[in-house]
Design a protein that fits this description.
Blueprint: H1 3-14, H2 17-27, H3 30-33, H4 43-49, H5 53-61, H6 76-82, H7 86-94, H8 109-116, H9 119-127, H10 142-148, H11 152-165, H12 168-174, H13 177-185, H14 194-200, H15 204-213, H16 227-234, H17 244-264, H18 279-284, H19 290-304, H20 334-341, H21 344-352, H22 366-372, H23 376-384, H24 399-409, H25 413-428, H26 449-456, E1 527-530, E2 533-536
Antiparallel strand pairs: 1-2
Helix pairs in contact: 1-2, 1-4, 4-5, 4-6, 5-7, 6-7, 6-8, 8-9, 8-10, 10-14, 11-13, 11-15, 14-15, 14-16, 15-17, 16-17, 17-19, 19-21, 20-21, 20-22, 21-23, 22-23, 22-24, 24-25
């Protein structure tokens, strides 16, 4: 870039109008209209992005096009709205800038302002005729983006604007709710509403606002996920967009409050997604501490009992206890999934609220899963809760037989010692007793949630709700689930293990696919396509069989966000 061009860009960025005037006199108008940086920005883009109102006004008076484009077709108005520069946006609109111009991914100035939460900018754009209901390529509207980012004040202003913008006859007939209903019911590419995304991000204040406005509390997205599913899956992404200190102080209350708000509005705690998973399944696979799990499980249970529900739908479910042993389409209970993820706190909590320690999926019991992943902690918890050590998996093996088979394949001395300890625990039943276990019948394939509920009907919880398993049942310095063993010094087995992580679908994907391999060890390639996105299989268990994380719907988050959440996470570039 030549020196005069650099000087023009720098002068516009700094609001140096005299320098711009000198450059114009020396080089002509082309120095202002043909000069670009590496991103295609012209001086007007630089001035608008840096809130240099005087420079913006002078450039417009000098003949610079108010709708000049940079890379991705971004206009100066988009730059001003993206950063909340109200006066610059005023000047550009007064000069004839197109209010609904679109950049390459169909983001408009309104969507950029909504994403940033700039109420004054958004209201200005709406006054100048911006489309309140415009959606970008991912199906996200400005209202949706404001809800996602937790901009409650902006959401309230947009709802009020929608009420006032309705024709007089509609306001008289419908209370002005026609445009409001369009905002609340608009769907993204994966069929999520603003209520879904607010729930997933734990935006309790926005949730309360949307519910008061009449948002559908049990609306299902493309994968059958309701907002209650989303808030329970979003728990793992707590602290999204906040610093660590803020996360510690506020997100726990925000997510629990979000659950309470949904339940009080009549959300169905037993609603299942297209793969048969309930809210409790999603809570069980989140890496949150035991106290959080207990409180959230209690909230769900009280809601199903009708204690905290109020409003439409609450009475219909009053007196119906939550089924802690409900299973998904693969026969996996919440306890099974918690064991497969190695979440000992979740396992302990689920056992305390009455989970069946022996409830098997279509292929194996939770005890078999704990053995496959060499997780002594989960195995001890299951045995202490009465898990049937003699139960057979689909291959006709007990957990002990499986452990001995895997030991025979092992070549590393440290792991051989671990398998010996696992076998000893299984022989003793986890309590130091003695004697071998007798084989039981294999798990019934396709056991339904109704069957599981019937089996546990009338039975007291395995552990009383207030009891705690003793610390002695937990492994001391030996937390060997998932990939921890790989941290030992350069130990390589003859069958090297691999660790993979699950990544959820993007907003443009088609959602979860129940036919994909599940925790039950279905066969499949190391990268299975689920709804257009790669589902990455977890570390290969010692038995050589690949177990895959469940295809939970998660929003892809391309900003500085934890795994979260989460698909409607696209951010303008």
């Amino acid at each position: 870039m030549k020196l005069p061009a650099k000087q023009a860009l720098r002068a516009a960025q700094n609001g140096d109008v005299p320098k711009l005037q000198a450059l114009l006199a020396e080089h002509g108008l082309q120095i202002l209209t043909e000069t670009t940086d590496g991103e295609g920005s012209q001086p007007l883009h630089r001035a608008a992005a840096n809130n240099q109102l005087e420079a913006v006004a002078w450039l417009l008076r000098s003949g610079v096009d108010a709708d000049c484009r940079k890379n991705r077709f971004k206009t100066p108005l988009m730059e001003a709205c993206r950063l909340g520069h109200l006066e610059c946006a005023h000047a550009l609109l007064d000069a004839g800038a197109a209010v609904d111009a679109l950049k390459s991914n169909e983001w408009s100035s309104l969507l950029l302002g909504c994403n940033g939460g700039f109420v004054d900018v958004v209201l200005l754009l709406l006054e100048r005729g911006a489309d309140l209901h415009h959606q970008n390529r991912e199906g996200q509207s400005g209202f949706y983006l404001a809800a996602r980012e937790g901009h409650a004040q902006l959401c309230a202003a947009m709802l009020e604007r929608a009420r006032r913008s309705a024709p007089a006859e509609d306001r008289a007939a419908k209370g002005g709710d026609g445009a409001v209903s369009m905002l609340l019911s608009a769907r993204s590419g994966v069929r999520k509403t603003a209520l879904h995304i607010a729930a997933m991000a734990g935006r309790a204040e926005v949730l309360e606002l949307l519910l008061e406005a009449g948002a559908a509390v049990d609306a299902a997205d493309k994968s059958g996920l309701t907002p209650l599913h989303d808030v329970c899956s979003g728990i793992e992404a707590e602290g999204a967009g906040r610093n660590h200190a803020e996360a510690e102080a506020s997100t726990e209350r925000e997510y629990e409050r979000a659950v309470q708000l949904l339940l009080r509005a009549g959300a169905d705690a037993e609603a299942a997604d297209i793969c048969g998973r309930r809210a409790l399944h999603y809570i069980a696979v989140c890496e949150v501490d035991r106290r959080r799990l207990s409180s959230l499980a209690a909230l769900l249970s009280r809601a199903s009992d009708g204690d905290t529900c109020s409003g439409a739908g609450a009475g219909a479910r009053a007196g119906v206890a939550i089924d802690v042993n409900a299973v998904d389409d693969d026969g996996a209970s919440a306890l099974y999934l918690a064991v497969a993820r190695g979440h000992e706190d979740a396992v302990c909590t689920l056992l305390e609220i009455g989970a069946d320690a022996s409830l098997a999926s279509k292929k194996r019991s939770p005890l078999h899963v704990a053995v496959m992943w060499r997780n002594l902690g989960c195995m001890r918890l299951l045995l202490a809760a009465g898990a049937e050590a003699g139960a057979l998996d689909a291959a006709g093996q007990t957990a002990l037989q499986l452990a001995r088979e895997l030991r025979e394949r092992e070549r590393q001395p440290q792991r051989i010692a671990l398998w010996d300890e696992i076998s000893a625990q299984l022989l003793s039943g986890g309590d130091g007793g003695g004697g071998a276990v007798e084989p039981r019948s294999p798990p019934a394939s396709g056991r339904s949630s109704e069957g599981a509920a019937a089996a546990g009907a009338g039975a007291a919880p395995i552990l009383s709700p207030g009891s705690k398993l003793t610390a002695s049942l937990r492994p001391k310095g030996l937390n060997l689930h998932l990939g921890d063993i790989k941290e030992q010094e350069n130990l390589q087995s003859e069958e090297p293990e691999e660790r993979y992580e699950y990544r959820g679908n993007s907003d443009s994907s088609s959602g979860s696919d129940c036919s994909s391999p599940s925790y039950d060890g279905g066969s499949g390639s190391e990268e299975e396509r689920v709804g257009g996105d790669v589902v990455l299989i977890q570390q290969v268990p010692a038995g050589g069989e690949k177990e895959q994380a469940p295809a939970f719907e998660r929003e892809s988050r391309e900003r500085e966000r934890p795994p979260a959440a989460k698909a409607d996470r696209s951010v303008e570039g």
